[in-house]
Structure formats: structure tokens, C-alpha cells
Design brief:
The complex is a heterodimer of chains A (about 190) and B (about 250). Helix content of chain A is about 20%, strand content about 30%. Chain A is built from five helices and ten strands. In chain A, a hairpin with a 7-residue loop joins strand 7 and strand 8. The relative contact order of chain A is 0.16. By secondary structure, chain B is an alpha+beta fold. Chain B folds into two domains: about 120 residues; about 120 residues, Trna Endonuclease, Chain: A, domain 1 (3-Layer(aba) Sandwich). Chain B is about 40% helix and about 20% strand. Chain B has eight helices and ten strands. In chain B, strand 8, helix 6 and strand 9 form a beta-alpha-beta unit. In chain B, helix 3 packs across helix 5 and helix 6 packs parallel to helix 7. Chain B is elongated. Chain B starts with a helix and ends with a helix. The chains are: A alpha+beta (about 190), B alpha+beta (about 250).
């Protein structure tokens, strides 16, 4: 593991610091370029997803572990699909250094509802959307992700997963998700 | 002239509320309550074929969202989630938050439900240590509430001059050997409980030992072997002890 200069040990004598001593947090000088680099760096799946999704607590779940071996970075990817409303889905990338602070970097979400700012009259924005980690929020000690940005890059969970695997650059994704690469004819859907 | 805040809020709140039919029996209520990432708090109304509202539900979204950040089924955290939901008056079985609508008053039920969702959602910021520490608190509650007829004594030192060999709870059955009960959450406590049992046996104390683990499988094989070879009885987790502990103690008598 290469020491990550963007993560620092929590030190200090204040009560809150004392409670967290021994844990790690992201440095306040983390840049958007740092976070974007973690999202886009080439990764290799090292612990594959389960053959079948697990159904737990009302949702289907799966995931895998990936690494950027050259940089010594480790990531977790999770997939979630609500059983009752399958259009409610989320695919996420977590930076998970063995000795550092986990950070949720990216989520590709389904059409589960409107995102902020909520509009007067309850206008319905049934769009898929992306939650991306923002350095400016990390710098202020907030949760990293901001409001969801609507996208039309996909319309289903499978399409979102395909886009996600390409966007976060998992080089060996076809080993386990090869079915996503098959072209689909519009009239071939069941 | 002072603004009529009640009137203004009443009008404005209403203008920010909408509904969407997601399934024939499921209507989503769009309310101006948001999670930290801007997504709305998920509230649905289950209804009959005639459109009569039956219950409020999150359809499982709250725990699904939580699962991005933490293991919602870890013993300590699952207990905390269940407890928070129950205290908020909401059922959390099968990973879905629900609130039955007993009256026609939808509004207070909606507010109660939204509050429950946000409180359960806050579990993600609990540090692991905080969640885990509830194990001992829950064991204490169970012993004092459900086993109080066994005159439980806490932090008992059976061997004079050996204060380091402390029993978490001594349960007394008239005319029988006392039950020495240990709660074990981690490796250090497992080894301390094993040392206690060993020393008590060497001192020819008359007792029956019982260990309640938070999560037996989290111990290494070496520690599992150690406590298994020295303790008279073990429960692999608190749920098992709640289910079968009293019956086992009764069989000791």
C-alpha cells in the first residue's frame, strides 16, 4: 500500500478529535482532481460479484472489490435494486483504503424520484441521476456527495451498470458482466 | 400588520406536496423532506383496490440507502435500527418501515413516519464502537428485566482477594449452584471469561458458567476453542440467549 497523502491521521486533543483518534479522515486540501482521478483510474476486479444477487431487507444486493494496483488504491462497488420498485436502484463506488477513511465517490441512481431543489407544485422529475463526490464538501467536513445531477445516459438498471463499469474503468468487467455488452434489438425485449 | 404565519405555511406546504401512482396499490407521496444528497425521503401509501389508504411504507428504501454506508444486518446495528423504529412507532420487519393507518388523520401519521425514516437514516453516522457497545447495555436490560426473579447481582467477585476475576452477573437459583454469566463482545473479554472460569474451577468453586456472545463467529478459532473448553454453556448471540436462556437456566436447577 502506497501511503496516500490525501488521507491523514486524526490527531489533536479536542473531545471530538479524541473520539476519532486512530481513525483517519480526508485532508482538507483534497482537490476535485484527486476525487475525479479515483473515479476514473483504471481498476481491476479482484473479488468478483456473487453469481446471484442476495435479497436482503427488501432489496437485491451485490458488489465486488476492485483495485488500482499501480497506485495501491482499493475500491468497493455495490449494486442495489429495490424488490418492490426495481426502478429504484443504485450503483456505487467507494474508495476503501485498508488503513484509511472510506469515501463514497459516485452513485448512479435509477428513477426513484425528484432530487433537490424540490419544486413548487411537486413537479415530477422521473430521471435517472448521478451523485458525485465534491471536494468542496469534503473540505468543509461534509458528506462528499452533492445533489443528484439528472442524466439521460441510461434508462434501466442494466444500462446504468454498463455505463458505470465503463465510466469507473473496470478493465475486466466483461469477465462477470459480459451479458451487458450484448446488443439488444428494440423489439427483442420480453 | 403581522403576517398570518399559520395561513402562509398552510398554503405553502400544500404547494410543495404531490403524489405519483407508482403501482396500482402504491402511491408515492412527494414531500419537501430530503436526505443529505438531495434525494427525497421515500414515503408511499399502500391502498386498497377502492383507493382506501391502509398503511404508510418506505418500500424498503431507507435500509437500502443505509446499506450503501454500513452493514445494516450487523448484530449491533440491526438491533439499533429495530429499536429506533420501534421507539418511533414504526414497524421495521423484513427491512421495510411501515406504519398502519388506524385513523383518517393522514397528516400526523405522515409526519411521524418521516421522522422515523430520518431517525433510522441517522444510524449511518453512528460509529461502529457506539453501535457495538449497546450489546452490553442490551444484555443488562434483559437480565434485569426478564431474569429479575433470579436475583441477578452485577459485577460479582467470587474469589476474595482476586478482584480482577469478576463475573458480569450472578444468577441465584435457590438450593442450586449459582450461574455465572459473562457477556463477550471481543477477544479480550472472551479470554478474560475463560481465565475466570479456569481460576474458579481451580479453586473448587461450585458454579455453572454461561457465556453470551455478541457474535460467536467473530472470534478466532483459537479463542472459540478456549471458551468452549472452559465454559459450561454458550449462546452464540444475544437473540439466542433471549430465546433459550431462561429454559437452559431452569434445566440447571
Amino acid at each position: 500500500m502506497i501511503p496516500n497523502p490525501r488521507i491523514r491521521d486524526i490527531v489533536g486533543d479536542s473531545e471530538s478529535q479524541a473520539q476519532c483518534r486512530g481513525r483517519r479522515e480526508w485532508a482538507v486540501d483534497v482537490t476535485q482532481q484527486d476525487l475525479d482521478q479515483l473515479i476514473s483510474c483504471t481498476k481491476r476486479m479482484v473479488a468478483p460479484p456473487r453469481r446471484e444477487d442476495e435479497v436482503r431487507g427488501g432489496h437485491r444486493r451485490n458488489g465486488f472489490v476492485a483495485e488500482d494496483v499501480a497506485a495501491g488504491e482499493r475500491f468497493q462497488v455495490f449494486t442495489r435494486v429495490l424488490v418492490r420498485l426495481p426502478e429504484n436502484s443504485s450503483i456505487g463506488l467507494i474508495h476503501d483504503p485498508p488503513d484509511g477513511a472510506r469515501l463514497l465517490l459516485l452513485r448512479y441512481n435509477g428513477q426513484h424520484g425528484p432530487t433537490a431543489p424540490f419544486s413548487r407544485g411537486g413537479e415530477w422529475h422521473a430521471t435517472c441521476h448521478i451523485h458525485r463526490a465534491y471536494a468542496r464538501r469534503v473540505q468543509h467536513g461534509l458528506e462528499a456527495w452533492g445533489d443528484g445531477a439528472p442524466t439521460q445516459a441510461w434508462a434501466s438498471y442494466e444500462q446504468a451498470l454498463h455505463a458505470f463499469l465503463l465510466d469507473v474503468a473496470v478493465e475486466n468487467w466483461r469477465d462477470y458482466y459480459g451479458h451487458l455488452d450484448q446488443p439488444r434489438l428494440p423489439l427483442g425485449e420480453e | 400588520m403581522a403576517m398570518d404565519y399559520a395561513e402562509t405555511l398552510s398554503q405553502e406546504f400544500g404547494s410543495f406536496v404531490a403524489t405519483r401512482q407508482r403501482r396500482p396499490d402504491l402511491v408515492q407521496i412527494l414531500l419537501p423532506f430530503q436526505h443529505e444528497d438531495g434525494d427525497l425521503v421515500d414515503v408511499f401509501v399502500e391502498q386498497t383496490d377502492e383507493g382506501r389508504p391502509v398503511r404508510l411504507t418506505d418500500a424498503g428504501m431507507t435500509l437500502m440507502r443505509l446499506s450503501y454506508y454500513c452493514d445494516t444486518e450487523a448484530p449491533g446495528r440491526a438491533n439499533v435500527i429495530e429499536r429506533i423504529a420501534r421507539q418511533a412507532g414504526v414497524d421495521s420487519s423484513e427491512g421495510v418501515l411501515t406504519l398502519d393507518l388506524a385513523t383518517d388523520d393522514l397528516y400526523p401519521s405522515l409526519m411521524q413516519f418521516v421522522q422515523a425514516v430520518t431517525r433510522v437514516s441517522s444510524v449511518k453516522v453512528f460509529r461502529r464502537e457506539v453501535v457495538r457497545s449497546l450489546f452490553y447495555e442490551q444484555l443488562r436490560d434483559f437480565v434485569h428485566d426478564e431474569l429479575r426473579d433470579l436475583s441477578p447481582s452485577q459485577n460479582v467477585v467470587p474469589l476474595p482477594g482476586r478482584p480482577e476475576l469478576e463475573v458480569d452477573y450472578e444468577l441465584v437459583l435457590p438450593g442450586q449452584r449459582p450461574v455465572y454469566l459473562f457477556g463477550v463482545r471481543d477477544q479480550a473479554k472472551a479470554r478474560l471469561a475463560a481465565v475466570c472460569c479456569s481460576e474458579f474451577l481451580r479453586s473448587d468453586l461450585r458454579f455453572v458458567s454461561c457465556i453470551v456472545h455478541e457474535e460467536f463467529d467473530s472470534l478466532t478459532k483459537r479463542d472459540r476453542d478456549l471458551v468452549t473448553n472452559l465454559a459450561d454453556k454458550q449462546f452464540t448471540d444475544l437473540a439466542e440467549f433471549r430465546l433459550h436462556g431462561r429454559r437452559w437456566i431452569g434445566r440447571c436447577a
